[in-house]
Design goal:
With 123 residues, the protein is α+β, with helices and mostly antiparallel strands. Helices cover 52% and strands 11% of the residues. It has helices spanning 5-16, 21-30, 35-52, 99-122, and strands at residues 56-58, 61-64, 82-85, 91-93. The protein has a 4-stranded antiparallel β-sheet with strand order 1-2-3-4, covered by helices on one side.
C-alpha cells in the first residue's frame, strides 16, 4: 500500500515530540488520515522500533540486539550484543565473538563521534 507522504511526516513530527505510538495513531485518525494507511504505518513503525530499540538496562545504558544472517525474528529469543553508555558513549561488546557485533559497533562509534563533533560546533 502506498502511504501518503504527509501522513509519514506528521507521524514523524509527533514521534519526535515524544508522543507514544498509541497516541500518534489516535491523533492521525482524528486529523482525518485514512485508517488503513495509519494502521499500516503505525504497525510498521512499532515493529521497527521494537527491533531497533531493545529494552534499556538501566537509566544510563541502551542494549542493542543484532539479527544475524539466517536468523528469523520470530524464532529467536532477543538478547543483547552491545551495551552503550548514554553519557559517555562507551560501548561494551557482549558478544565480541561475532563479526556482526564488530561491524555494528564500528558504525555506532562513527555515529557517536559525528554527533559529538556536531554538538561541539553548536555549543
Amino acid at each position: 500500500m502506498e502511504i501518503d507522504y504527509n501522513l509519514v511526516q506528521r507521524a514523524q513530527m509527533l514521534l519526535t515530540l515524544d508522543h507514544p505510538l498509541t497516541q500518534v495513531r489516535e491523533i492521525l485518525l482524528r486529523e482525518g488520515y485514512p485508517y488503513e494507511q495509519v494502521t499500516e504505518l503505525i504497525d510498521a513503525t512499532e515493529e521497527v522500533l521494537n527491533y531497533l530499540m531493545p529494552p534499556e538496562y538501566d537509566e544510563n545504558k541502551i542494549g542493542i540486539d543484532i539479527l544475524r544472517p539466517g536468523e528469523s525474528r520470530e524464532k529467536r529469543k532477543p538478547g543483547v550484543d552491545i551495551l552503550i553508555d548514554k553519557h559517555t558513549g562507551r560501548l561494551t561488546l557482549v558478544t565480541p565473538e561475532y563479526q556482526e557485533t564488530w561491524k555494528v559497533a564500528n558504525e555506532v562509534r562513527k555515529a557517536i563521534k559525528k554527533r559529538k563533533s556536531l554538538t561541539r560546533i553548536y555549543h
